[in-house]
Structures are given as C-alpha cells and as structure tokens.
Write a structure and sequence with these properties.
By secondary structure, the protein is α/β, with parallel strands linked by helices. It has 14 helices and 15 strands. About 40% of the residues lie in helices and about 20% in strands. Bound molecules: adenosine-5'-triphosphate and magnesium ion (MG). The site of magnesium ion has 4 residues, from loops.
Length: about 400
C-alpha cells in the first residue's frame, strides 16, 4: 500500500472544449518529471490528477517536490494510504495530521467514497472519524461550515487515503500548451525570471545565449548553462542555443561610433533570435528588459532595438521593481547563480556615454557600415547546442 499525490488543476478547468488537450499536456509533463523518481501511474478525474506510485521504492519526497514546480497545477497534496477500515482511517488522520490539528481552531471531515462496497456511507464515515478526532483533539472545535482544517478521506478501490491542507502549486498552464518562444538568456538576474514567467503561461522555451569568447569567459557560459539547468524544473526540457558573438562585437567596435555600440549589438541579438525562432516554429521573443533600468532600456532604445523584427517581443518584467524581480529569482532558485561575478557580453565594449534617446535614422545610418547579413550568417553557422533534460 502506498501514498499518492493529488494535483489540482488550475486555469485548465476554465478551458471548456480544449480542456482535454490541456489535461493531456499536463499529464505528459507530469510523467516526464516523475520518471527519475520511480514508476508512477498518472491519470485525471474531475479536475484532479492522481499520481500513484507503482512500487514501494518510489521516491515520494522527490516526486512531491517536483510536482510543486509543475505549471498547470494550483495545489499539490500528499495523501496517506491506509486500510479501508474506519479505525485505521481515524488512526492515520490522528498521526498524519497531528501538526495541522495543533495549528487549527476548527475542523471538519469530508469523505469521498468511490468504492461503493464500503459498509458505511460518506456521511457516516465522516461523522465516525470526526467524532473520534474531536475526542482526540478536544481544543479543536468541529465546524462544518467554515473550518480552518478540512480532513479529507477518500475510500478508493485499492485503499483509503487521508490528507489535509495542500501545498501551493506553481500555477500557470502546462508547458507546451500555448506554443513556443525564443528567450534571450543572459547570465543576469532578469532574464531567468522573464523566462520563467513566460514558460508559466504554457510556452515551451528555446533559450538563446550570445557568447563573446575570449572577452567573456568559459565560466560566464557555464553560468548561463547552470541557469538553464535550474530552469528545467519548471520549464521542462531546454535546448540552449549558444551563438558566437565575438566577431559581431569586434566589427561594431571597429566600424561604429562608440555611443551606439550597445544599441547595434542588441539589434543583432534580436535579428539572430528571430531567425532561430523562425527555424523552430516560435511565435515570439522573450527578454528580461525593464523600463529605464539601463541606457538601452528607455522607450526610444526599445523601439530601435525591436525595429528589425516582425515577431512580437514579450517583456514580462517591463514594469516591475528590481526587488520584486529578485524575490522571484530567489523563489525559483536562480538568484545565487545569477549574482556570480562573471561578465556578460553586454559589458564588453560598453560605451562611456551611451545614447539614451537614439533616433532610428541615425542608428540605421551607423549600422550601414556593417555587412549585417554576412555577420548574421557567420554567427548562425557557429551555433552550439546544449540540451538539458528534466
Ligand atoms: P539580465 O539581468 O537579464 O542580464 P540586464 O538588466 O543586465 O538583464 P541587459 O544586459 O541590457 O539587461 O539585457 C537585457 C536583456 O537582453 C536580457 O534580460 C536578456 O533577455 C537579453 N540579453 C542580454 N545579454 C544577453 C546575452 N549575452 N545572451 C542572450 N540574451 C542577452
Ligand atoms: Mg545583462
């Protein structure tokens, strides 16, 4: 007899006609994440996904933790299994939920019974278990209308299950249910957070990183790969496209006025990202840009940056405060890696006085000194791919 994990679906339940499609994605994503924790049977009924271990050696703690990171789920509950016997159910509730009883002022028992051969009705079983629990925890009142703690009892074919308060789920929608996008991933604090936020809307991501060896070090690349690895727990499998960017940056340095370095470099990043997006069926680009944070993130600079594109640029952090971004980075586990002190290609050849209110015509004029198409092709030909499974 084993414990099980219950996943409550979030926005998927609002999907009406498409519900089955979203649910199938969610189940497939759950299965993929559970593989390394043992053999599980995963299926859905009534907006709940059941995760049932198929053997005693399944790592339930690992599985529970993985499920709290799964997009498309609003709450995650581990339910204790016991014999289908009214006293065994009471004993299980008493020990498993002892801590929850310590914290609650009121409770009720709610029973669901899918095994119709069980000798008591749902109400009888709730009253029996509730009666014993209230003797056991006399300071916790019974309140059937608005209890602080609900003791859930489920009598199913294989066993009975008891569970209390669920853990919060990751929310959002199942990755892959809303298409694909390219995310520009630097080693900073912002872009792992923007990636996470868009993946949470059900988007499968392809991270692209621009790498300027030897101006930026191997360690800087390793840092970005580590960020991608951390993100897989939420975003699913990620294949990072590493684009050699050195020659482009040197050409800009040699042929353009210094005050335009960053802007022109960013236009190259956008163009190359769009090519990668087109090759992979992606419908948008994602960046960690944030209004006013740096010289290249004024409204005028953003306009110049995105002007060569036809795909939309999603900027989920655009109006957020840095401390709110940091709070998310800490929550998703990327912050500590992001603050490692390796340089990014944006900090190579940084202009001393960057243009904060660039005019598009001037930028186009400056850029015409470069063979844009040849430089893009050369960079695309040198792409290296690193895949991270979940
Ligand atoms: P971050 O903390 O994400 O690095 P930032 O505040 O340092 O952001 P910029 O360096 O101007 O801002 O970069 C803005 C955005 O451009 C980043 O959030 C990221 O999406 C993208 N970007 C910057 N550098 C790179 C890079 N080397 N490779 C891929 N994308 C990059
Ligand atoms: Mg940066």
């Amino acid at each position: 007899m084993n414990d099980i994990i219950l996943l409550k679906q979030g926005e998927i339940v609002l999907k009406g006609q498409n519900k089955r499609f979203f649910e199938a994605k969610l189940i497939a994503n759950a299965k993929r994440r559970l593989k390394k924790f043992g053999s599980f049977h995963v299926y859905a009924t009534q907006s709940t996904v059941y995760v049932e271990p198929q053997s005693d050696d399944c790592d339930m703690d690992g599985a529970l933790d993985a499920m709290t990171k799964l997009f498309g789920v609003v709450s995650v509950t581990r339910a204790m299994a016991c014999d289908k016997d009214k006293d065994a159910i009471f004993e299980t509730a008493k020990t498993y939920l002892a801590e929850a009883f310590d914290e609650a002022k009121s409770f009720k028992v709610e029973t669901k019974r899918s095994d119709k051969a069980f000798p008591m009705t749902s109400i009888e079983l709730s009253q029996y278990v509730g009666g014993l629990l209230s003797e056991e925890f006399p300071e916790v009142e019974v309140d059937v209308h608005d209890p602080e703690l609900t003791v859930h009892v489920e009598v199913r074919e294989s066993a009975a299950y008891v569970h209390g308060k669920p853990l919060p789920g990751a929310g959002g929608m199942p990755v892959g249910s809303n298409g694909r996008a390219v995310t520009l991933l630097s080693g900073g604090i912002d872009s792992p957070v923007s990636s996470y936020m868009i993946a949470r809307r059900g988007i499968h991501l392809i991270p692209v990183h621009f790498f300027s060896f030897p101006y930026t070090s191997e360690q800087a690349k390793e840092k970005v790969l580590e960020l991608a690895r951390i993100l897989t727990a939420s975003c699913g499998r990620l294949t990072v496209e590493i684009v050699p960017f050195t020659h482009i940056q040197e050409e800009i340095r040699d042929k353009c006025p210094e005050e335009y370095f960053t802007l022109i470099m960013r236009r190259f990043m956008m163009r190359i990202s769009e090519r990668i997006a087109d090759m992979n069926g992606c419908k948008a680009l994602v960046t960690g840009e944030n209004l006013g944070q740096v010289a290249s993130q004024t409204m005028e600079a953003l306009r110049v940056t995105e002007q060569p594109l036809s795909l939309p640029v999603l900027r989920p952090l655009i109006g957020m405060d840095k401390r709110d971004i940091i709070a998310i980075a800490e929550k998703i586990g990327t912050f500590e890696t992001s603050i490692l002190p390796y340089e990014d290609c944006c900090t190579v050849f940084t202009p001393r006085h960057p243009r904060t209110k660039p005019k598009l015509e001037e930028v186009l004029e400056v850029e015409s000194a470069l063979d844009v198409e040849a430089l893009i092709k050369e960079a695309m030909d040198g792409i290296e791919r690193v895949c991270f499974e979940i």
